[in-house]
UniProtKB/TrEMBL annotation:
Organism for this UniProt entry: Herminiimonas glaciei
Chief localisation class: membrane
UniProtKB keywords: Cell membrane, Membrane, Transmembrane, Transmembrane helix, Transport
Protein name per its UniProtKB record: Aspartate-alanine antiporter
Membrane topology, from the record: Multi-pass membrane protein
Amino acid sequence: MLGSITDLLRQVPELALFLALAIGYAIGQIKFGPIQLGGVCGTLIAALFIGQLGVTLDASVKNVFFMLFIFALGYAGGAQFFANLNLKGLRLGILCLIEVVVVLALVLVATKVMNLDAGTAAGLMAGAATESAVVGTATDAISKLALPAAEIQQLQANVVTAYSITYIFGLITIVIVTSQIFPLLLRVNLREEADKLWAQMGGKEAAPDEVNAVREMTGRVYRIDVGAGRSIASLHDLFAGQANVERVIRHGSKLEVTPALKLQRGDQVLVIGRRRALLTASSLLGPEFADTSQLNMVVQTIEAMLKSKALARLQLGQLALPAGVHVSGVTRGEQTLPPLQHMQLQLGDVLHLYGSADAKSSAMAEAIAMIGTRIERTDRSNIVYAGLGIVLGVFIGTFSVKLGGIPFSLGTGGGALLTGLVFGWYQSKRPGLMGIHPDALSLLKDIGLASFIACVGLASGPQALTLIKQYGVALPLIGVAIAVLPASISLLVGHFILKLEAPILLGAIAGQQCSTPALSAIQNAAGNSTPLLGYTITYAISNVVLPLMGPLIVGLVGYVHR
């Protein structure tokens, strides 16, 4: 049976790629407490085992998938990367700088002490820093070294093997220390600190499950009693902009809702707004009732990108939108943030506007004009970006400069990452143009990286055992040290110098290592989404900077050995 499968895979080696993806993503979905390896690491493990059968794919297949992934990575992060090149972003960017400098230093020390080759050193860095993209940029840089083909293949195999060993230990380490150990070192109760910060920023103090189970934006109908004589304008002030009277029925007729309109006893009104604001509405208006047949109306949610520099200096609660328009959510980069009133807005934030869909209402149009530009979502994607971006990126990657006698170049990966960043930023500035759909972009990243890793894993399978026997437990232990030390230094700097709140600091540390599993563990421990406020900034920066370290570490290892 095994012989028949082996023969089939050798005859049609493409099947090995899809088999590694299927088995790998199944492995990656298995949870060990808060730890989940994910599809990429699972695919690598599956590919290394399948590779023992001697099944390999043409190198061009690997290169195509890598180009798709690295361009999509840059395109997805372009807007947030450039948006964070400000004082606040650069302030948290110090943690990313710590990550890069400390990881590079530790890898170079390990290289000197253990006489690591360039492939093993690059794989050690990629795994311990839990940044899979470094595998691609490093193997691409190794392919351009002036070495025999067999030696290049061995070095590339070492990248993957070292990555697979150290990634697992680096991932487990960063998840445990950020969510369990660091709060103890800070001497804080993370859940209490997160609840306190959530309340300070205008969030509801109840459990997060309640927020998820009940819609934040809602509408209710009331029969006017105690509210008789109040004007619409006075009610708007009492609701503090958190709710609005949208419809008024008097003696069976619908009235035009104007600021000067005064309510009378027996009027039926529809109030739309945030749920917590409506909890006290009956004390201002009168009893709530269930029959909404005359008062029901259609509402809409529209996305608008924040392009106003004046508004970007404000907190969300200071945003004076037209009456009847509310912000129901904020998307920053690839993360959806809770609409907390004291959350600082940033250029490029996508605000989800909630309001009436009445054709004659101009409030939504006024709000969009004030914020920036409406985003028109479409299921289609503009492949021109991907095709042209990859071509330009590969061209840019061919140029090199010598620093201290060492030739450095962006390579295929760095070039495609750079053009992806620029194209993603350009698209964010012109949301009216058709870009690459977020779902399509996510697929490009997932299938591109996983397929690239599978191809390299299949080619590296036969050499994997050699490297494991050579270094034994040394690589896992070094991987743990490389994961812990920069995170620990960032903890000290963030707490004593930057004075960051514990939830934001821990989220930022998870972001500096691009570790989504660590973020999930921190959020579970915190009980709300406040760690996201630190994670989005450092993730956007590290997700761009760390992949560029692949060619750098390859060049520096050669310098160390010389």
